[in-house]
Design goal:
Blueprint lengths: L2 H22 L1 H11 L3 H7 L3 H12 L2 H11 L3 H11 L5
Helix pairs in contact: 1-2, 1-4, 1-6, 4-6
Length: 93
């Protein structure tokens, strides 16, 4: 698998995990939506898009308390999470 496809696959998987975490924590979901300027319809329409996937990962990467909670609840190491975050923010894959 080419490197860019691997990063995109990791991003999609991680974003799904982030969205699942937010769905279980309504107060955090509301904070994310306010931060992103989204209402519930906009969020529903954006699910699965690369823009939302990047936004979810960036939101968690910039918020250490929920990043650590997500990692603890999902058996993901913070280092692995941040590795994907840094990969999607590189100018080249």
């Amino acid at each position: 698998m080419p490197r860019s496809e691997n990063v995109e696959s990791s991003l999609a998987s991680l974003a799904d995990t982030c969205l699942g975490y937010l769905a279980e924590h309504p107060e955090e979901l509301l904070a994310f939506m306010q931060n992103a300027g989204m209402d519930p319809d906009a969020l529903r329409n954006a699910v699965g898009t690369p823009a939302l996937q990047r936004g979810l990962v960036e939101y968690f990467a910039s918020n250490e308390p929920i990043l650590l909670a997500l990692c603890a609840n999902s058996a993901i190491s913070p280092e692995d999470f941040m590795r994907v975050f840094h990969q999607i923010n590189r100018t080249e894959y």
